[in-house]
């Protein structure tokens, strides 16, 4: 064997170290804090914490490099191999007691978290003043560090976050990610270093002209193993999957799946290092969320669909029952479930939705409204005077600057002055009258908005206004049409509104010199419940299952047409094939009885309406006439009167009144929904 000394640069370890240093990007603030402490101008203990894969080990290697450059002795201790006992730990870290200039770096501290109290109370107080100790782990430090005045100036806590976009781009440059793969990789991984590196390796391996990167199951599985690891039980895994799917998670949401254990599971989620808290609830790190979503959809698509449907139904109910002040948050949570559909970017909720706040219009805001409305100021002033309660003002939370106004105009009839004052409202009114006019008791709505130029189009404040519009649509009763006007809509806005089942009408209103488009939805043809069900299916079934597809439209009948259809259906009640041809099978009345054959549902509904007449003593005679005539298959009315023991004219009067009651009962349900009480005679 040669005794010739080996050049350090020829060692594999040196090569590995050089590559790691080249790949290190960002973290300037953290390195600056360390260097301040290294050169005696900062703390004695640094506590770095963050979720798995966020770059703690890479940062500690950079700290070790900086310390070596400064000529200070460095000791690196790995919690994965450290025996979790004070004696063993002290033996591994004794350098800090032998040299006052020592730098001690403890990585993977979560593996020996039980030593934290001993470290704080007994180990570190014995270290020399010149020594520097860095602790890095997934969990934040125990609150007793910060509650102790003695540690106030000696401890610096550094929560490690995602890399900034520029740093993430630099990491992809280093990894050689093809240009066409960068945007989807960044959308999946964000600034998470491990996800970026794993995704980059897959993108480079499979890279090629025109190919776009998507996370394969190897990437997803590796991330989940590293970030999440083994979970205590199937219930804990499902709770984490719910947390990943929902916008934010509360005990109330967990109770949908875990009626008994929601509180326990919520407390467990709250302690996970990759789960954060906001005023709305808990949410996981974006990479953990995306990895869990991708894994469950691939591993158990049926279970994924069941979970989605439960969460969707719970959040839809919240939208309908929330107070006016809570509607925006409820709609944002519901909309977030559709973030993986083909809706345009920016159409889903953000965890920083507090950037804009909504307020009712006050008298002192009228001048601002006119300034924001600019060329359309006369129209805005007209409606503000007539319908001030319809208006909302939107301010930037940080500065209080008013940036937009919206108005939700609920209209049952219009006078000539209103038609002349607002060409957009006039066009909506003309469209409704020319298509399917309002029926008695119905109304249409027009959503108007005015915004400062920088906030028009695809901006966060438009998300907030959109949430208000969706909430209004889902909470309105007896709304026939809704219209939304958009100022010079770009393709993203058009696709967004079509995604929500709205179509643009061909005419273009032009208030002043500006071009607007008007988008419309017929809530009688696709009622709120049917709309919600299609939106729910969209995430699981793909774009073909959404409201933007070409669903079979419901029939919108006038009251006279509806009553005539009921009379015919009663006469054909025993014949299912005849009921199948009834226009009633294509009305909201039957659409709300989802899952049933339409003809069978219509027959059941007619029988139920007849039976309901027995509950009112004043209607029993009408029930008897209808029952004998339509339910018992009596061949002629004369025979029906004979079976009832009534004069024919009396029987006819009872039968006619009974049919009118059934028509009135079903018409009320058509207008107001299935929960409407049955009609009662006065």
From TrEMBL:
Pfam families: AAA_16
Annotated InterPro entries: AAA_16, P-loop_NTPase
The Orc1-like AAA ATPase domain, residue ranges: 24-72
Residue stretches spanning the membrane: none
Protein known as: Orc1-like AAA ATPase domain-containing protein
């Amino acid at each position: 064997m040669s005794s010739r000394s080996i050049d350090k640069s020829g060692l594999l370890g040196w090569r590995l170290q050089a590559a790691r240093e080249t790949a290190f990007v960002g973290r300037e603030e953290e390195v600056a804090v360390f260097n301040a402490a290294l050169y005696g101008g900062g703390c004695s203990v640094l506590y770095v914490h963050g979720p798995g894969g966020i770059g703690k080990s890479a940062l500690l290697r950079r700290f070790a490099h900086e310390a070596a450059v400064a000529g200070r002795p460095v000791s690196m201790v790995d919690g994965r191999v450290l025996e979790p006992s004070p004696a063993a730990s002290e033996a591994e870290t004794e350098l800090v007691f032998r040299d006052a200039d020592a730098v001690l770096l403890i990585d993977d501290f979560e593996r020996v978290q039980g030593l934290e109290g001993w470290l704080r109370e007994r180990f570190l107080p014995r270290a020399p003043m010149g020594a520097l100790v860095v602790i890095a782990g997934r969990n934040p430090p125990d609150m007793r560090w910060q509650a102790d005045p003695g540690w106030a100036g000696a401890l610096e806590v550094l929560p490690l976050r995602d890399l900034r976009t520029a740093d993430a781009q630099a990491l992809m440059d280093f990894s050689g990610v093809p240009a066409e793969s960068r945007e989807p990789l960044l959308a999946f991984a964000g600034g998470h270093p491990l996800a970026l590196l794993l995704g980059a390796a897959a993108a480079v391996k499979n890279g090629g002209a025109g190919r776009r990167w998507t996370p394969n199951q190897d990437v997803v599985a590796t991330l989940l193993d590293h970030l999440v690891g083994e979970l205590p039980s199937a219930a804990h895994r499902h709770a984490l999957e719910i947390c990943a799917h929902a916008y934010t998670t509360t005990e109330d949401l967990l109770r949908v799946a875990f009626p008994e254990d929601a509180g326990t599971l919520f407390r467990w989620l709250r302690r996970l290092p990759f789960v954060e808290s906001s005023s709305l609830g808990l949410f996981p790190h974006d990479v953990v969320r995306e990895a869990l979503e991708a894994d469950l959809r691939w591993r158990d698509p049926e279970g994924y669909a069941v979970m989605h449907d439960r969460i969707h139904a719970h959040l839809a109910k919240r939208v309908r029952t929330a107070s006016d002040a809570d509607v925006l948050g409820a709609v944002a949570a519901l909309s977030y479930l559709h973030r993986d559909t083909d809706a345009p970017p920016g159409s889903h909720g953000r965890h920083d939705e507090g950037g804009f706040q909504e307020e009712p219009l006050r008298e002192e805001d009228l001048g601002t409204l006119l300034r924001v409305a600019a060329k359309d100021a006369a129209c805005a002033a007209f409606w503000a005077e007539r319908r001030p309660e319809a208006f909302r003002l939107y301010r930037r939370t940080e500065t209080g600057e008013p940036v937009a106004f919206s108005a939700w105009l609920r209209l049952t009839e219009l006078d000539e002055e209103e038609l002349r004052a607002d060409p957009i409202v006039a066009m909506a009114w003309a469209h409704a009258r020319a298509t399917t006019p309002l029926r008695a008791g119905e109304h249409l709505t027009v959503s108007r908005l005015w915004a400062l130029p920088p906030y028009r189009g695809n901006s966060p404040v438009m998300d907030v206004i959109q949430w208000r519009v969706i909430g209004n649509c889902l909470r309105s009763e007896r709304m026939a049409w809704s219209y939304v006007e958009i100022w010079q809509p770009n393709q993203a806005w058009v696709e967004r509104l079509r995604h929500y089942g709205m179509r643009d009408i061909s005419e273009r209103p032009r208030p002043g010199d500006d071009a607007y488009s008007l988008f419309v939805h017929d809530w009688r043809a696709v009622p709120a419940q049917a709309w919600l069900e299609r939106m729910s299916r969209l995430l699981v079934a793909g774009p073909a299952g959404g409201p933007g597809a070409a669903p079979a439209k419901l029939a919108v009948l006038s009251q006279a047409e509806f009553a005539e259809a009921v009379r015919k259906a009663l006469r054909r009640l025993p014949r299912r094939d005849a009921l199948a041809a009834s226009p009633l099978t294509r009305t909201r009345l039957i659409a709300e009885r989802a899952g049933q054959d339409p003809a069978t549902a219509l027959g059941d509904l007619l029988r139920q309406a007849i039976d309901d007449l027995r509950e009112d003593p004043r209607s029993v005679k009408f029930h008897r006439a209808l029952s004998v005539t339509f339910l018992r298959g009596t061949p002629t009315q004369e025979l029906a009167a004979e079976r009832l023991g009534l004069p024919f004219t009396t029987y006819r009067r009872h039968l006619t009144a009974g049919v009118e009651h059934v028509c009135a009962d079903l018409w009320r349900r058509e207008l107001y929904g299935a929960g409407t009480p049955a009609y009662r005679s006065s």
